[in-house]
Design brief:
It is built from nine helices and 18 strands. It is of the alpha+beta class. The chain binds 2-OXO-4-methylpentanoic acid (COI).
Length: 367
């Protein structure tokens, strides 16, 4: 284990911006907490670990990230309950996924203990920024960029790893109207679809903009080869309840192995629900929509947690899903997740770790 005092230098802000924040009217991702974490990868090792006030970066215009896109990130959240206790949800899984993205993009891995120590130092110093209101949380954005000042195409030898945080509310304000995409694709076999690489999001912007022009909030992505199989929805994994069975596409090479996705599947199985992770054929889904057998459709992701889908468009026709009821699986699982994340429900899967702002060790985060 890496000791925080030994390795991470703390430079606290002179005057907090906390009093300027309206916590009940938080736009997603636009309000940033006082501090950020930063470290550099130089000569084959991570160094200069510092928590310092949130500020702009200074980069060479030739930095390889700006030209060839070696950039990866994670999304995670810290939660506070009414007893002022702060929890992180499945942080170790984010550390593992970050390293899996790093390997695919020829970027250096981050020792898990270091990733977690960095995270803990930052959340502790900004613990007052973690909202304690239901539905609100502190969104945490760890990311890594390539910093070689060189415009030849090759993997960079230097990198920066940074983490900043923002108090957030809901990502989507309303149930989603989505369209099954039949031309563009988010990711292809052999590509980087299963990583959290910035480029995947860049590739999604134009098709999503076209869908918006047609009156949809987002897309349901299909496979790049034939557009026959369902992959993801917007920036989320996608799930359907059909004939009381929970269906979601297998996380092949083109689909992000979502941590919320895994949590929802785990809870569904624990509740005795039948779960099918398999290829979902677009035509079969559309047939089920026509026959009124699709009971629920929703996206899962860290930012949105569970985002209900109200309408699915395909071949110029919109299929409306049934009205929501409090007994719906997606509503019950969203509530259970919220309760686990705030330490209110039994954490039987060992997903949360409590952060003690006054102690250097939050031991269960490192186990
Ligand atoms: C997340 O759910 O954390 C995401 O990565 C989605 C996002 C791009 C806001």
């Amino acid at each position: 284990m890496i000791s925080t005092e030994e390795t991470i230098k703390i430079v606290p802000i002179k005057k907090s911006r906390l009093d300027d924040v309206d916590f009940e009217n938080l736009p997603f991702g636009r309000v940033f907490s006082d501090h950020m974490f930063e470290m550099d990868y130089i000569d084959g090792q991570w160094t200069n670990m510092t928590v310092h006030p949130y500020k702009n970066l200074s980069l060479s215009p030739a930095s390889s990230v700006l030209h060839y896109g070696q950039a990866i990130f994670e999304g995670m959240k810290a939660y506070k309950n009414s007893d002022d206790e702060i929890f992180l949800f499945r942080a170790r899984d984010n550390a593992n996924r970050m390293n899996s993205s790093a390997r695919r993009l020829c970027m250096p891995e981050i020792p898990k203990e270091l990733f977690l120590e960095a995270l803990l130092s930052l959340v502790k110093i900004d613990s007052k920024w973690v909202p304690d209101i239901a539905g609100f949380s502190l969104y945490i954005r760890p990311f890594m960029i390539a910093t070689d000042s060189y415009i030849g195409v090759k993997a960079s030898e230097t990198y920066k790893f940074l983490i900043f945080t923002c108090p957030v509310g809901a990502y989507y304000a309303e149930p989603l109207k989505v369209k099954i995409e039949q031309f563009y694709s988010r990711a292809a076999e052999g590509g980087i679809g299963r990583t959290k690489a910035a480029g995947n999001y860049a590739a999604s912007l134009f098709p999503a903009m076209m869908a918006k022009k047609q009156g949809y909030h987002q897309l349901i992505w299909t496979d790049a080869k034939e557009h026959k199989y369902i992959e993801e929805s917007g920036t989320m994994n996608v799930m359907f309840v059909v004939d009381n069975i929970l269906y979601t596409p297998t996380t092949s090479g083109t689909i992000l192995p979502g941590i919320t996705r895994d949590s929802v599947l785990t809870i569904a199985k624990d509740w005795g629900m039948e779960v099918q992770e398999s290829s979902i054929h677009v035509e079969e889904l559309v047939t089920a929509l026509k026959e009124g057998r699709v009971q629920e459709a929703f996206g899962t992701g860290t930012a949105a947690t569970i985002a209900r889908i109200s309408t699915i468009g395909y071949n110029d026709k919109d299929y409306e899903l049934p009205p929501f009821s409090e007994n719906d699986f997606s509503i019950r699982v969203a509530e259970r997740l919220e309760d686990i994340k705030r330490g209110k429900a039994n954490d039987r899967f060992g997903w949360i770790c409590k952060i003690d702002p006054d102690s250097n060790i939050s031991i269960n985060c490192l186990n």
